[in-house]
Amino acid sequence: MREYISLATVAARAGVSVSTVSRIVNGEMRRASPATVARVLDAIEAVGYRPNPVGRALQRGQSQLVAMIAANLDNPAMATIASSTEAALREAGYVMVLCDTHDRPELQDEYLYAMRAQMVCGYVLVAAVPSRGLSELSASGAPTVFVSRRNPVGNGPFVGIDDCAAGAAVADYFANLGRRVPAVVFPRLGSSASRDRVSGFLAKLRERGWSDKAIIQADGEGRSHLQVGYNAGARIFGGSDTPDSILCVSDQIAYGVNRRALERGLKIPGDCDIVSIDGTPLNQWVAPWLKSIEIPYAVYGAEIVAGLQLIWRGESFGERLLPYKFG
Amino acid sequence: MREYISLATVAARAGVSVSTVSRIVNGEMRRASPATVARVLDAIEAVGYRPNPVGRALQRGQSQLVAMIAANLDNPAMATIASSTEAALREAGYVMVLCDTHDRPELQDEYLYAMRAQMVCGYVLVAAVPSRGLSELSASGAPTVFVSRRNPVGNGPFVGIDDCAAGAAVADYFANLGRRVPAVVFPRLGSSASRDRVSGFLAKLRERGWSDKAIIQADGEGRSHLQVGYNAGARIFGGSDTPDSILCVSDQIAYGVNRRALERGLKIPGDCDIVSIDGTPLNQWVAPWLKSIEIPYAVYGAEIVAGLQLIWRGESFGERLLPYKFG
DNA sequence: CTGAAAGCGCTTACAG
DNA sequence: CTGAAAGCGCTTACAG
């Protein structure tokens, strides 16, 4: 496993210099005579040569590695983003390195530095948290795409949905259905995405005549959104008013809320409608009671890679808000 | 982003040669005078030097990258394996590259070749499928750990559970409960793991007095185990005998079977008990009706990395069967 | 105890 | 149209 077929092998076989082989490997066909090109191509074929990305990376000061730094792979939404990004990168000839920060800034920084050392050619930050390293990355101008959560320490290319509009759509849905006691559940330490979903929801309800105090708001704590929902559920179903409609800013929060609702003997749907924002395919199988705004995570990968390619070409890429499906 | 602090920078600052700095960076402290060591350490600190893994990889013929080649990241069990492996590798100073083969042999091969070119120092194959490239890898003796499914084209280090025993445990459980019409649901194109679970289940039932025809066996097709279960469910609940107990070889199959059961108006549990082998944490939240053999996926990562480290040290590592929890 | 030198596989001005 | 040479950052015999 320690023998690699190098340019030199091919060059020797074709009777030319490594420079010539290198150029041809890199597609500069016109700079060599057709006869030479043919001979080199034959030699490549014959010995089964494949360019060594490590040598190339060292020389170019940049590898074909793209770092995906995600907050939590156990979250199915992030797993789907990772999976679709991986597929899109492979198709474009890149290799994805996966880093799971568990939402911890120190780990995020550790990875950011390690990836820089690996000379990665790009960064995909899914639900990034503020950190020193992120600020440095931001300032360095390295090719970076933020996903789901916007850059928490500046701005930069973003792939996601219009979170405000999504929240508002749920508000309209509840209002049109004639619901009177709406609630919203979100994580205590929310991202820009959570916040926008909540504020879009609240703004639209106000617009449609609700007073702020008529809307139940519950944040929850926990290391997973399941816990967040379960914890917030305790307060939501324990107050004087029981909501007849609940927006959960993620599927997993809805699962947690639902479990609490079941424990309290509530019928869902029926006593109370729950809508979440995520719409993971799993819902249809294990949570038919749940209505969702469907975020097209499976196409995130393609958009992220398209964004990176624009940036590599020096073109600008501000943000890409993908359409979601509801109902 | 194109400036990297190199050994040369440190050497210049410390007034020594790069060789000396290199040795010290690599922990060969005793080969330099204490004064030199101190000076070099200071310089490293002062300029914030970090070894460049690319240069190192090229020289050593081996990177610090470990390839994780998994069949399907959308499966929560694999996502958990990926996540725990990633954490364990990071702790050990390695970086994980993630490849999702979607269970396709050509893609698996593409990745295997690409990873070889990246000079990865190890392979983690989760649910590998037979392929040309896998045979080559197998023959090459490269450090490899197979996870969940054993090497389908030979043998090699394995991390998983005793699938046969797990299947048998479920058979005992059903028998002790007094169930009369057991069934088992598995994917048509099964892995060694599926097969072992099924055969362990069947063998134990036979031992306890069932005849083969008294056990309902249903395989299912589909691109996901959810589909597999749903499809097999149609046949299971459509026959002359309705089972009173079902073993599903994975959680997702159980979700699919359950959905079909609900459509047929069956009560679960009650009319029929379902037990699955996986025991993903999500079950407690979205499938309280499901009893499971719990596979400790969260500790797979540590075992996998421990296995790789044994192999790297030249020690042998046959297989590691982890204990599962049931009930 | 320390350094000069070669080389890992590659790319890229530069000279011819 | 082609090649010799330098260099990306590192490690490692080898010589002193």
From TrEMBL, chains A, B:
**UniProt keyword terms in alphabetical order:** DNA-binding, Transcription, Transcription regulation
Protein species of origin: Bradyrhizobium hipponense
Q: Where is the HTH lacI-type domain?
A: 5-60
Write down the Pfam families for this protein, in alphabetical order.
Answer: LacI (PF00356), Peripla_BP_3 (PF13377)
Its taxonomic placement starts with: Bacteria, Pseudomonadati, Pseudomonadota, Alphaproteobacteria, Hyphomicrobiales
Alphabetically, the GO molecular function entries are:
DNA-binding transcription factor activity; transcription cis-regulatory region binding
HTH cro/C1-type domain location? 5-50
Q: What is this protein called?
A: LacI family transcriptional regulator
| Cited PROSITE patterns | HTH_CROC1, HTH_LACI_2
Please give the PANTHER family that the UniProt record associates with this protein.
HTH-TYPE TRANSCRIPTIONAL REGULATOR GALS (PTHR30146:SF109), LACI-RELATED TRANSCRIPTIONAL REPRESSOR (PTHR30146)
